Structures are given as structure tokens and as C-alpha cells.
Amino acid sequence: MGVGIEVTNLNAWYGTNHTLQDINLNIPANHATALIGPSGCGKSTFVRCLNRMHETNPIARVTGLVRIGDLDIYKDAKPVEIRRRVGMVFQRPNPFPTMSIFDNVAAGLKLNGYSNRRSLDEIVERSLKDSALWDEVKDDLKKKSGASLSGGQQQRLCIARALAVDPEVLLMDEPASALDPVSTSKIEDLIFQLKSQYTIVIVTHNMQQAARVAEKTGFFLNGRMVEFDSTHKIFTNPSDKRTEDYITGRFG
Amino acid sequence: MSEQKPRADHKVRARFRAISDGAATGLAVLATLLVVTPLVAIFAYLLYKGASSLSWAFFTQIPKPEGEEGGGMANAIVGSAVLLALASLIGVPVGIGGGIYLAEFGRGTRLANAVRFTADVLNGVPSIVMGISIYALIVYHQRRFSAFSGGVALGVMMIPTVTRTTEEMLLMVPHAVREAALALGVPNWRSVLSITVRTASPGIITGCMLAFARVAGETAPLIFTAFGNSNWSVNLNQPIAALPLQIYIYAISPYDEQHKLAWAGALVLIILIVLAVSLVRFVASRGVLKGAS
């Protein structure tokens, strides 16, 4: 089951660049939440603060409070534990090129020392079914490399890989921006199905995509969150002039 | 707008492009020929000079005393194998470990820069100097020439090549692949060993093979260490024969018979290196999956 995310006074820096300024919001459990905004507005940095990937960059710094479920992620746990509970899918599909399809999905478990073979088989099958890839790859699970799949399949493989470690939250950083329209709609269908089990946060450049998949939408601009509301309200009747200018295409 | 002029211009340009394309292709082919010619020439000459002296005895017998006919290099072939095994045992793990440190853990630190600089300097040290150094460090104290010291000399020579290629190959692994592992909650050290190194392994293996092939033909570092041996010995504490040493000894001898054996030895050395490298490549490629890049 997914859990809610509570963000209070979150600030983030890259070197001296103050990328995120005083972000406050509550992301509801078992819903899809979209983050929109022009390039460089901080939405990617924001999701990277939710699984502590931000700090893997040596010049990065972060302050503030992030609670995921009942866990204060910057205080109560180590980054590796957080990242097992908060899965992430990146903009470009990034399967492990030397691993088979099976090993790609099992990687998160295997590399964390999990080695029960029978349940590994089950988990891989369930994850691939959940990511709607099973029928396309079930005959080549251990024969083909993850890199041999098409871009859209690779991205669904990466989703399966993230699901296999059984996270509570799934972060998606522009998961469809490198894909063609058919693959994109498959990913969107997937988000629709997955949000009953996971809390999903999706960063997107594509406003129609936000409108299609998310119940809540946040608009980021220049490192600040301008507005956060139900998707319907953001796209039909935004409270802030800047949100309106952005969604009507006046800038960005 | 006039249509005529741009079109004529376009034709001239297309012509120019076709010519420059042809010229560039021609130059590339010429360069390839220049690279391949010496290789082929050396191999052909070795075959011409050495093949006639190859016999069953060459691979099964040890050298005969000077002036006598016949004899072989069996002990030198085995000796070279022992020396190279020992060298790889030292050079490959230390070299790969150093490369992993430079690329993954020490990046940007002062120690890493010092290690990298040292590796580059070590790479440029003449092999005879390496021989003398190991003589002073090991042979002098043990008071005897030994296979062990020879293996150490060759192993130390392998380290910088292996270290630097490992580093370069690891740095070529895309950042996205490392991030994927970290985002799964895999600890950094585990991600480096199981993901980054594994992804870079074809290049790392190539680096090891380059270093191996280079030291396989080294003579100078062995003169003061392994020393050579005209009898059978695989004892690490005794002097040991090696193909390059035996070739050297035969090549400077006054006997025509031994000159022929030296040619045959050179031919065998090259063939064995090619076989060893091909074998490693074959074994390494068996695990590669369909479509893996």
C-alpha cells in the first residue's frame, strides 16, 4: 500500500545555486500527483529529495522535513533504506545493459542479498505483469539483455525493476518524455493501474499528461511551488496568475 | 528569385562532397593497410624463418648443450606460463583494484591524483629498470634468482596499464546506470562492484589482455630476476626458463642451429600469446546476452 508524503520547508542547493525554496505540500497516498513547470524550475530536484538521490551529487545540500508515512526520511533512516521504500523511474530508460531481463527486474533484490530462487521467480513475474511487459518478454527472460528491448519496453522494464523491491512510493521523473506516443500511452495506462497500490509522483513537461493521469497537480516556477491543488482546478480555474499564464502557453 | 544559380552551386558542392568523401575513405583504407602491413610482414617472416625448425621435439625437449643438434624449448614454454600466471595474479587484481579506486572512490582526491600520476610514470619506466629494481628489492635479499622475482617484475609492469584502462572503462559507464542502482537502495560499494564494474568488464578484460600480451614478450626485466634455466624447473624459488630469454640466448649464440631455434621460439611465443588472448575473449564472451551492448 502507498503512504502519504508530507513536505515541510524543504530547501535544496546545488553548490551555491538555491534550486528549491521553502517547499510545503502534502502528497496524498494512493493517488497520482503530477508536478509541472518549465525546465529548470526544480521539479526534478524536488522528487530527488524524496528518495535522497539529491545528495548523491557531492555539491548538493538539502534542509527541511520530509515525512513518508511515519518516517522522517532525513532523520530516521539511511538513504539506502529510504530508496527501497521509494522507487524511482528516470527520464531515459536505464536498464542494466549487461544483465538479462530477469536479472534486471531481480537486481534490486539480489543486490540487497535476497536469494530465495522460487520467490524471486514469482516476484519477477508479478512485477513484469504489473508493468504490462510480461507477455512481450516471458519467452526471453534469461536469454535477452535488457538493452535489447525497444525504448518503451525498456522503460516498462525499469518500472518492473522499481516495483520488484515492493516500494510504497513510486517517483517518475518525466518517464515518457523519451518515448513515442504509443509507448507513452502504455505508460500512462500503467500509472492509472498502479496508483491503487502505490503513491505516485510524476514529473512531466506534458500538461495533457498531467491532466490525464493525476488527481493532484503542483506547479513549480523558479525553485518555488506556486500552486498545488486538484488537477481539475489547476487546469480550469487556477488561483495564481502565473499558473494560468503557464497552462495557457503564455511562457515555458 | 532565380532558380538557376543555387542549383548550379548545389551541383558543385555535391561534387566537392563526393570527392572529399572518397579522399577521406581512401586515406582511412591506406592508414589501415599501414597498420596491418608490419604485423603481417613480421608474422610471415617468422613463419618463413621459424616454421621449418618446429617439431615435436621443440615442444617436448629441453635445450641441448651448446654445439649439439636438436633440443627444444619445452621448459621455456612452461616457464613463461608460470611467470605469466604469477604476473597476472599480481597485476590483474592490484591493477583493477587501483582502477576502481581512481574512478569510483577517490575521484578528485589528492591521493587519487598521486596514484594516477604514479601509474603513468610507472608505465614509462624502461623494462630493464624494472628488472634492476626487482633485483635490488627481492633477488639481492634472497641471494638467488627466482621465478618468483621474475613474476613480480612482470606483474608490477602490468599494474599501470590495467589500472588506467580500468579507470577509463569505468568512467565510460553512463551515470544513468549508476543512478539506477542507487535508486534501488543498493549500497554504493555494491553498486560499484556488481553494476559498474560488470558493465565495464569487456573493456577491463581488454586492458588486462593488452598488459598480459605486453609483458609476455618482455626479456629485460627477466635477465636480473628469473634469469633463465636450461633445465626443467617450475620451482618458484629457483631460476626459471622463459621463452623471451631463451630466444635472446639463442639469437646471440654463434651456432646456426640455435639461430633457427630462436626463430621458431619467436613464432611460438607470438602464437601462444594470440591463443591465450583469444581463449580469454572466448570465455568472457560466453556469458554475454543477446543484445547486450
Structure characterization notes:
Chain A has 252 residues and is of the alpha/beta class. Chain A is built from ten helices and ten strands. In chain A, β4 and β5 form a beta hairpin. The longest helix of chain A has 14 residues, at 117-130. The radius of gyration of chain A is 18 Å and the shape is globular. By secondary structure, chain B is an all-alpha fold. Chain B has a single domain, classed as MetI-like (MetI-like fold). Chain B is 76% helix and 0% strand. Chain A binds chain B through residues 51, 53, 56, 80-85, 87-88, 90, 92, 94-100, 107-108, 111-112, 140, 143-145, 147-149, 158, 161-162, 165, and chain B through 174, 176-177, 179-187, 190-191, 194-195, 198-199, 201, 288-293.
Unreliable stretches covering 5 or more consecutive residues of chain A: none
Shape of chain A: globular
Strand portion of chain A = 25-35%
CATH topology of chain B, which one? MetI-like fold
User: What structural class results from the helix and strand content of chain B?
Assistant: mainly alpha
| Gyration radius of chain A, rounded | 18 Å
Kindly state the percentage of residues in helix of chain A.
25-40%
Largest sheet of chain A: 6 strands, mixed
Beta fraction of the residues of chain B?
Answer: under 5%
| CATH class wording of the domain at 5-95 and 168-247 in chain A | Alpha Beta
Strand order of the largest sheet of chain A: 6-7-8-3-9-10
How many strand units of chain A?
10
Distance between the termini of chain B: 51 Å
